[in-house]
Amino acid sequence: MLKLSNEILIKIFGYLTVPEKRTCASVCEKWRCLILGGIFYQDLQVYGEENLLLLNKHFEENVPHRNLVQSLRASQLYARAPLVNTILALPKQFPRLREFVYEHHDSDTYESDESKIVIDEDIAKHWQGITKFYHYDKYLVSSKLLKYGGFRNLVELGVSFGGKERSAFKCDALIQHLSNAPKLKMLKLGRGAMSLSHLHQLHCNAKQLEVLRFSDMELEPIVGDRQQPLISHSDTLKELQFLECTEEYNKSMLEHMEYPNLKILEARLRDILQGDYCEDQLVKFVSHCPHIKTYNVNIHQITPAIMNAMDASGIKLKKITITQLPYTHPLEQLKILHASDQKNSISTMTLDYSDYCGKEPLNVSTMFTLMSKFTKLKHFESFGRRLPDFPLGEFLYKFQDMETLKLKDWGIRVGPNPLHGSIFKRKKELKTKLKSLTLVNVTCCEESMSFISETCPELSKLTILEQFSRDFRDIEFPNHNFESITLKKMESINNYDCNLLPVAMGRSNDDPYNHTGFHYQVTDDKGTKWYKIVGGIQEKTFFEECPKSENIRMISVKYKSCATLKLGDAYI
């Protein structure tokens, strides 16, 4: 298969099933680079103007393939008028295109003659099949397509205004025509400025909106209007997000919003030292949103006032994220949450200590004691750093009904005493209901994997992501039937969101296995095979034991069966 040319692969790729495409992508780096970015034809990613022109040429010569394209992402582009017109013509070329993401190059400062960009009813009619559109709105493309009826079936729209310059004008033009997108459910606005009057008009024109996200937004003052801003109300909105917005923006928007059926509230900053504001606004906001189920806010820590407002409005949270501020007591917010009625309903909890650097040490046992009062808790995630080791045995003993555990940047030990913990001695008696375990950049003691294997008989999903400076422990679960196992070496891992890890990342030259890779000895009830993974790519498969070398790290993986095994980026 490796001798097949890229041209032959392209010809056959559109007829392969998804598992077969995954197999092709893991065969060799040459094919992976060709395939990476999506499922060929159905899901295309194009980087740069040159590749976009090559794409056009390919489909000019292969007209039947046009009907296969359903999703397209075009990125690293410079917004010159001819190229924008080429982009606008793509839905006509691909009649079944439904999802379209159009991204500019970060360094794009080129100003083209906007009058040369043609958007009219004839252009817009070919956009009426689009259900998802994301782009950097340098030339009012979205507002003009809305104006001419191009988004009749649009469900999801994401617009980056590209900075404060002219963004209020762009925002006004966009919102003015939102009523021409009657099926719009999700709207994401970023890198711009908008006013409270814009927000009010937005809800007047998009009455069916369910998800609203603001990222990196600033407040545009209302000029010449001294009237009290109106409260923006929506009965349909279910999810609201503020990401990296200014303090003034967050305060003003939360102060004038009322969403009685909202279920998810997220308001986050990467630099939490810039937070700790908006308590009064959050108290007022949650008082009018009795159906909130998910609360992920770090612009202000959890306080008794916020929790009392939730309890008074009848909120019963299901999911909460607590972000520890650097110099506050590490358990203060958890204690406040514990004292509220919310402890009786929360089933999913995330404790983020990644930025904590206070003098007060974290007492993990006390943390577990407080958590044990959350009677419905089934899913737990925690980010650590510079903290005591995570006593896995104590955790599993106290939370035997826990179904999901995710740990990042922790060290794991089995019991209070790594060698003689009483819990470790009772491991044969301990049987938990844990079904999913994710370890990201976690160091484990020698006993940890065998302990998990013995105490978690229902474990069916295992994910281990490690940085290059750490070595995998052998993964042996001889009696387990897994739905999925993922093992991957990572050069760096994003602290902000453990669930948004990149598909592929580079490797450091300091990694001794950078060029020689890892060998995996995989044993199941059908026998043993050996796989060589280099840079995340499956390079070879051995049916006999591969040659040993001091430069090759051999990792043993043992299980009874596994439906989906992923080593690096390769599906085995």
UniProtKB/TrEMBL annotation:
It comes from the Eukaryota. The lineage of its organism: Eukaryota, Fungi, Fungi incertae sedis, Mucoromycota, Mucoromycotina. PROSITE patterns: FBOX. This is F-box domain-containing protein. Residues 1-44 form the F-box domain. SMART domains: FBOX. Gene3D superfamilies: Ribonuclease Inhibitor. InterPro entries: F-box-like_dom_sf, F-box_dom, LRR_dom_sf. The gene is PARPA_01476.1 scaffold 1359.
